[in-house]
What we know:
CATH superfamily of the largest domain: Regulatory factor, effector binding domain
Low-confidence stretches: 84-96
Protein name: Heme-binding-like protein At3g10130, chloroplastic
Family: Belongs to the HEBP family.
Helix content: 10-25%
Organism: Ziziphus jujuba (Chinese jujube)
Distance between the termini: 40 Å
Mean pLDDT: 83
Strand order of the largest sheet: 1-2-8-10-9-4-5-6-3-7
Radius of gyration: 17 Å
Amino acid sequence: MGMVFGKISVETPKYEVIRSFTDYEIRKYAPSVIAQVTYDPSQFKGDKDGGFTLLANYIGALGNPQNVKPEKIAMTAPVITKAPQSTAEQIAMTAPVVTKSRGGEEKKMVTMQFLLPDKYRKAEEAPKPVDERVEIIEEGERKYGVVRFGGVATEKVVEEKVEMLKKSLEREGYKIIGDFLLARYNPPWTLPMFRTNEVMIPIE
């Protein structure tokens, strides 16, 4: 029942709040190890979150872990969606579960990422995936401007939060160095009023 009412009981990223404002924060996130998969959403009937099952299988969230040990790996939160990018542009992603889209002329590829538990400090410490589509990478320390909000993270609401956060960051003199991430901390069956979401914009 806790998940229905928004209780977050899984591991979340470690970060330090550098500065707090009325409606957003500046955070510094610690280095992390990430499992990711890049795919064409059309293979999943256009579902941008279609790669979730591949990563969930890797950690054993849906049954036996699909890694060489095999070792069950704890799920983390949030699920993060990356804004569409040009296929020619490579932007490093950082987050627990991340979906980043790269829009090409012919198709849009999506990269979804799971932040692995903190006990994995290096990529080689994480169990090797059985599915070659899943890769393990390391992300270094990074800084974000972050605004938190509740309810359903519709495209319209997210756009409004992104524009507000961008203007606020620029007004305070922060340099934006990439596109926003949408962090969703709760499963789809959580009641909208109890959901926790965040828009995160990378800064120098």
